[in-house]
Amino acid sequence: MSPGRIGPMETHNRIVLPAMDMNVSEHGEIEQPEIDHYVSRAAGGAGLIITGACAIAFPHGAASMKEPGLSDDKYIPGLKALADAVHAAGSKLCIQSTHHGKVARVDVANDRPVFAPNQPDYTYDMSALADSTREELGKMGAATAGKQTEYREMTDEDIAWLIETWADAAERIAKAGCDAVEIHAAHGYILGVFLNQRDNKRTDQYGGSLENRARLACEVISAVKQRVGDRLAILVRVAGEQYGQDGGLTLDEAVEASKLFEQAGADAIHVTGWGRNPFDNFTDGPLPNKVGAYLANAAEIKKHVSLPVIAVGRMLPEVSEKALAAGQIDFAAMGRQLLADPELPNKLRDGKFDQVRPCINCYLCVAENFFDDTPFCAVNPALGNEALLPLKPASASKHVVVVGAGPAGLESARVLTERGHRVTVVDKSDRLGGTMWFSTMTTPDNERLLKWFKAEIKRLNIAVKLNTPATVESIKALRPDHVIVATGAVRPKPDFPGGDLPNVQTGDTLRAMMLGTATAEEAGALLSTLGKLGRLSGVTKSPEFVRQFTKFWLPMGKDVVVIGGSLVGLELSEFVAERGRRVTLLHEKQQLGLPLAMPRRWTAVKDAEKHGVKIHRNVSITRITEKSVEWTEGGESFSAPADMVVYADGTTSASPLADELRAADLGIGVDVVGDAGAVNYIHGAIHSSWKVTTEL
Ligand SMILES: Cc1cc2nc3c(=O)[nH]c(=O)nc-3n(C[C@H](O)[C@H](O)[C@H](O)COP(=O)(O)O)c2cc1C
Ligand code: SF4
């Protein structure tokens, strides 16, 4: 929370919103939705706002026609409106500037060769795309109008033009009254591509040694410095490391490059990371899975420069605070966390740590950028719709009964209470979270959200009745004015021959056993052993404990067959395989992991394979026996041993309670939210809840 300084710019704290393109501009102009987005993060307390990438030569070198432009004075009024608004909200504004080089989709779509150091070899393992749907592939292809990329080896004239154009862009940023410019030298854009030896094979003064490879970035930095002098702070974004293919930038090289950037006139180094294969390494960089993923690299770079260093990459508040206090870094950039909760800095300042709505690392936001679309956030429906906040008070306070304490029920209860309604939540199980509690086993990031919900329910003093099955009569007895049904999806037993054998479990029976609420009928012969786990989880109610404990003791035989490879089946397979079981995953379709967002899906498939899950796609199940599962695939018959079969398919929405309530004609409004209305997991739960509860 202490003030920070970068060159001529002082910030009121050390929290930075890093660049995240919102894709809402039209033809290079900054429009009001973009201003609203940044202003809400400035008002939420971030000391420095960095815009998403802006194109120095727009539309040349742009990744999207929705990207703000910096190539003409006509863009200055939009930049100025943004700067004024961010300043009025109390923060400083930095404009990220780039030429996207090989990723300039606008150039490809318009038959312009893209800039590269040389005719390149950007070959990647693209097998991950087998898990993208036809629609997703179509949308990705549309961003380049389905055209093939042609490369242009940059000539000396091109290089001189690029440097001059960058300096012109910085001039406009300064004229608009912004505080800083960030020069992008990472993420596969032109300066980042020159920097690494895998992509830069030039034999002139811009290729070869690190000094030569960094020359273009240094010349851009110097030209910008000369042009804007002390009017703007100059940040340089660099990958502390490149992940994936050999030949990417190493930490040692990033340290050397940072030293050269300092000499060239940089005022701060912003340390990111980059996965070289966007399909395989995206969750290594630029959006890491790992908490504090680039902190060690940032700390190392800081040892070698005398400039402030910004670290990014899941810099959670507790990680950031420690690193800042230890002097490892000077600023912490929090990207997705500030999408999930723009008020994060103010909440930290006010000691309301528990109230920070966490990002669940689901990658749904950034997946939209693959399609040249506008990001949305699974846990924050106001992203891109900032006018939804603050929540409007209800015109008349009602008593609302919410049935189900999963994410849809809890979010409904929270929003309704914030708006002034009185809410009673009822749930048949013994704990909050519903399916989300169960999902925290395989997806630990969801546990942050569960904890947040619990803290919010407590803070808002919402009445919760657990171990309380809801019926028309029991709801009537609560005398509500309105009922929200958030009872979740149904997971039927499989209808294959053998689907009713005792070694077959469904998501529901597994969940009931984990929660300790399984009946003998549900759990079959396995109840006696699995029940122990249920009792344990019932005692601790701590997902983390059960997650760790099951690494030592999991009541499943050696051979497990999971049928159904969508989100739940895929993550469950990995979870079980990680615990030493031989897992066969049988999926009746091609794409695994749906509806996980693409980058996360690609990584989940890779991780499952890494843990030894044997994956079979496009299969047709023939029958289940007490010891095996049989299926056909490409006209051939197969079988796999199975001590336990988990049926993770067939999840469908259903809300029989809502039907009964409506049929009972009690004169009470009834709404259905979450998976009970349409199966779309946490994102669907929260967004559908807002649709209903912000209107009630
Ligand atoms: C939706 C979205 C768009 C992004 N766009 C950009 C961008 O325009 N320029 C950039 O350098 N990084 C971009 N990033 C990467 C972020 O700046 C940040 O480095 C990354 O999200 C890791 O930080 P985090 O873990 O705090 O989210 C984007 C990230 C997201 C989520
Ligand atoms: S969409 Fe998912 S990853 Fe992105 S900010 Fe929201 S919760 Fe985080």
From TrEMBL:
Every FAD/NAD(P)-binding domain range: 399-660
Residue span(s) of domain NADH:flavin oxidoreductase/NADH oxidase N-terminal: 3-352
Source superkingdom: Bacteria
Keyword Iron: yes
Cofactor(s) needed by this chain: [4Fe-4S] cluster; FMN
Record-level Gene Ontology MF annotations: FMN binding; iron-sulfur cluster binding; metal ion binding; oxidoreductase activity
InterPro entries for this protein: Aldolase_TIM, FAD/NAD-bd_sf, FAD/NAD-binding_dom, NADH:flavin_oxidoreductase, OxRdtase_FMN_N
Gene3D superfamilies (UniProt xref): Aldolase class I, FAD/NAD(P)-binding domain, NAD(P)-binding Rossmann-like Domain
Keywords: Flavoprotein, FMN, Iron, Iron-sulfur, Metal-binding, Oxidoreductase
Family statement drawn from the similarity comment of this UniProt entry: In the N-terminal section; belongs to the NADH:flavin oxidoreductase/NADH oxidase family.
Protein name as catalogued: FAD-dependent oxidoreductase
Source species of the chain: Arthrobacter yangruifuii
